[in-house]
Specification:
The protein is an alpha/beta fold. The protein is 35% helix and 24% strand. It has helices at residues 3-16, 32-43, 56-60, 66-79, 103-110, and strands at 21-25, 46-49, 85-89, 115-119, 123-125, 128-132, 138-142, 147-151. The chain has a five-stranded parallel beta sheet, sandwiched between helices. A three-stranded antiparallel beta sheet has the order 5-6-7, with no helix packed on it. Strand 6 (128-132) and strand 7 (138-142) form a beta hairpin. It starts with a helix and ends with a strand.
Length: 153
C-alpha cells in the first residue's frame, strides 16, 4: 500500500470523528508535501498554502490582537473554498512571531468546521510536535493530543 493510500485511510478515520486534525510528520525531504499534493489530487481536496491566509486585512490589525482575529478570518477564507477537507501546507508561515498566532489553538478551532491535514515543519520529541527557530532555540511545542499523526518515511 502506498503512503498516499495509507494517508487516505487515516483521513477517512478523522472525518468519521468530525473535527479532527491529521498531522503529517517526517524528516526534512521525506516527501510530506508530495504525499499531501498527491492525496489532494486523488481526492480533489483543497490544498492551501498558509501564506494565502495572511491578507492585507489581517496585517492591518494591531499585532498584539492578530491572534484573537486569526481563527475567524482564516475560517472565512477557508469557507470560501466550500470544502470539507483542507490541506494546509507551509504551516511555518503562521509561526512568525509578529503574527501572534497560537497555531495549536487555531488548528483546533478550524477543525470544528473542517477536517484539517497539515505537514508539520518540525520534529517530534518527548511526545510533542516541536519547531525551533533558525538559531536552534526553542520556539513551539504542541501536544498532539486529539491529533492523528501520520509519518512519512
Amino acid at each position: 500500500m502506498s503512503q498516499v493510500d495509507e494517508l487516505l485511510k487515516v483521513v477517512e478515520a478523522a472525518q468519521a470523528d468530525k473535527g479532527n486534525i491529521v498531522i503529517v510528520t517526517g524528516k526534512p525531504g521525506s516527501g510530506k508535501s508530495k504525499v499531501l499534493r498527491e492525496a489532494a489530487e486523488v481526492k480533489k481536496w483543497t490544498y492551501v498554502d498558509c501564506r494565502m491566509l495572511i491578507s492585507e486585512d489581517f496585517l492591518k490589525i494591531e499585532a498584539r490582537d492578530r491572534g484573537l482575529y486569526a481563527p475567524d478570518m482564516f475560517a472565512e477564507i477557508l469557507e470560501s473554498y466550500n470544502a470539507e477537507v483542507i490541506i494546509l501546507d507551509r504551516l511555518q508561515t503562521l509561526f512568525v512571531p509578529v503574527f501572534h498566532i497560537n497555531v495549536d489553538s487555531l488548528m483546533r478551532k478550524l477543525s470544528k468546521k473542517f477536517t484539517i491535514i497539515s505537514a508539520w515543519p518540525g520534529y517530534q520529541a518527548n511526545g510533542n510536535l516541536c519547531y525551533d527557530k533558525f538559531d536552534g532555540t526553542e520556539a513551539i511545542r504542541i501536544s498532539p493530543d486529539g491529533f492523528r499523526i501520520f509519518n512519512v518515511e
